[in-house]
Write a structure and sequence with these properties.
With 86 residues, the protein is mainly alpha-helical. The chain has one domain: Multidrug-efflux Transporter Regulator, Chain: A, Domain 2 (Orthogonal Bundle), CATH 1.10.1660. Helices cover 47% and strands 5% of the residues. It has a two-stranded antiparallel ribbon with strand order 1-2. 10% of the residues are buried.
């Protein structure tokens, strides 16, 4: 039986929380999910992304989507390389 709050959240379209185990098998992640999975703070994540550590993607044919995604494998490879960004 669903709780009352679960029913309200479902009506509102609230996303269920995603576990780190779930995130570790997904290839495409939202920035907040990547930060959680790799233990990065918001500032450090965006410094790495903006300075060429790993690319960010905006889905859609025009590239103007507000949604930003990163590939888990690209973030992993950058962090494993130990490279710094300028």
């Amino acid at each position: 039986m669903e709780s009352k709050s679960a029913k309200i959240n479902q009506k509102r379209g609230v996303r269920r929380s995603v576990s780190v185990a779930d995130l570790s098998v997904r290839e495409w992640l939202r920035p907040v999910e990547a930060m959680r999975l790799f233990g990065l703070g918001q500032s450090k994540f965006w410094v790495y992304a903006n300075d060429g550590g790993f690319p960010t993607y905006r889905p859609g044919s025009d590239g103007k989507s507000r949604t930003v995604l990163v590939r888990r494998s690209e973030v992993e490879a950058f962090l494993a390389s130990g490279k710094s960004v300028n």
